[in-house]
Amino acid sequence: MTMSEGAPSGQAVDDLREQLRQYASEQALLLEIAQRIAKGGALETVLKDVAQIAQRGLRAECLRFVVAADPEPQAYYAQGSNGEFADFDAPLLAVARQTLFEVSAESALPQSLSALREHFNAVAALPLTAHEASLGILWVAYREAHTFGAWERNFLQLLAAQAAIAIANAQAFEAARKGREQLAAILSSCVDPILVVDTEERILVFNPAAERAFGISADRVIGNQLSAFASMTEAAELIALLRGEATSAEGMEWQNANGLAFAPRLSEMRDEHGQRSGSVLVLRDITRYKNLRDNQADFTSTVLHDLRLPLTYMKGYVDMLPMVGEFNERQRAFAEKIRSGISQMSDLVEKILDASRLDPEGNYRLHREPCDIIKMVNEVVATHAAAAEKNSQTLTTEIASDIPILQLDDMMMRRALNNLTDNAIKYTPPNGAITVRAEVRDDALLLSVRDTGKGISSEDQRTLFTRFRRIRNKDNIRVRGNGLGLYIVKRVAELHGGDAWVESAVGQGSTFYIKIPMSGANLIGSGRSEEDSHAG
């Protein structure tokens, strides 16, 4: 073989040079386009500049980006690519949004594009796709006969990919911007102070209402650590909430320097993977409701205390009536009804006062003192012995001998046990049995009152310890009560760190329980007295 036989022909060399030239041209165009996209700016400006560069490089008569949008597609194009070309945006978008669409002299066209050949001899339309979402199309056209070569197809595909990413990023940025503006508008208009912190305890959001509540500018707070914020204000309990040091915001109140009262509500932020990304603290201004509540409580307390004195006088004079002269049977019945009515009124006054003191939003503090449980149970039962005997009921006690002296609010414990015993007598039929029991179980004092009454349905049990709740049925319609006794029982137990509940079934009687933990402030020598417990 001669050397001339092994050397490439002149045509082959020319073809290779042309391929290299096209490749270099393609790379130069792509670089220029990438640099323009990287420069940034408004989407309209970027796409128009990119279209101008690409149209110049391809030497086409028309190059347009058509982005799907409501109510109609939005087009971005190079100079000279408008006018009658716009009529083909929608039809081409319909046929090329998912796949490449190419028109040559021999191509058959759908009816919607039949007029296309009057203007162009060659058209290529490519879908703009990013993150598996169809965003629109890129289409390019030539008036003269033109065959799209491999490098042109490759270039157009790369151009479509870059343009699609630019469009997707612009749309995401716009959505984020609108979202930020909407959030800023919501936060600015919200009357509740709002604080948002991330998992690194950096403050991300501090709205205008928070600025007013804390008296601190957002510029001094946002971006700083909670520790820095803590040094600016007296809000230790709120800082503890945001740090997760407080278990719950339930029943918590915070008062600012201006005397306004707020109820905090804490919720967690989570990312798309369900991982905690921060916390949101919302402060609801409850000053008005707190003032109304306090005024109502003061009014109720004043009225009830004023009722005590006339009721005492009335009872005293009724008791002295027999001193005036001998009563006949009818007079005795009248006097007994008056005495019973006074007793009921006095009981109602005392229970409303107790319920008001023990309310979770009230200000009652336990008055702890050494409490002899055995003595207390015996004395409470003794005060009800006459009433039980009058009803032909058996009232007994079962008291364990190993119950220690505890540090409790003796008065409130007596009232709670008194309410349970009184209820048992009222709701147990004649010849029934009532047992008051005291024992130690699971490191706790357990008081119980068991009766042989009609029993309570599971539905009624759910609301039995609610304030002013009474069971209404034909069996107890004549039983007098105010629906406060069991509420007081439960609150007394809760204030001592315990609980109260009932176990009952219809037709099988009921057993009411009070459980007081034998730990902490309930123990003698714990070092905590009446200041340790507060309602709510």
SSE map:
Blueprint: H1 3-6, H2 10-39, H3 43-58, E1 62-67, E2 74-77, H4 89-96, E3 101-103, E4 122-130, E5 133-142, H5 150-189, E6 194-198, E7 203-206, H6 208-214, H7 218-221, H8 226-230, H9 236-242, E8 254-255, E9 261-270, E10 276-285, H10 287-324, H11 329-358, E11 369-371, H12 373-390, E12 394-399, E13 406-408, H13 410-427, E14 433-441, E15 444-451, H14 458-461, H15 485-495, E16 499-504, E17 510-517
Parallel strand pairs: 12-14
Antiparallel strand pairs: 1-2, 1-5, 3-4, 4-5, 6-7, 6-10, 8-9, 9-10, 11-13, 14-15, 15-17, 16-17
Helix pairs in contact: 2-3, 2-5, 3-5, 10-11, 11-15, 12-13, 13-15
Could you explain how this protein is built, in words?
- The protein is α+β, with helices and mostly antiparallel strands and 536 residues long.
- The protein contains 15 helices and 17 strands.
- The strands form four sheets. The chain has a five-stranded antiparallel sheet with strand order 2-1-5-4-3. The chain has a five-stranded antiparallel sheet with strand order 7-6-10-9-8.
- A hairpin with a 5-residue loop joins strand 8 and strand 9.
Classify the oligomer: single chain
Tell the overall outline.
elongated
Widest sheet, order of strands: 2-1-5-4-3
Could you tell me the mean pLDDT? 83
- Determine the structural class based on helices, strands and strand pairing: alpha+beta
Strand content: 15-25%
Helix content estimate? 40-55%
What structural keywords apply?
single chain; 536 residues; alpha+beta; 5-stranded antiparallel β-sheet; 17 strands; elongated
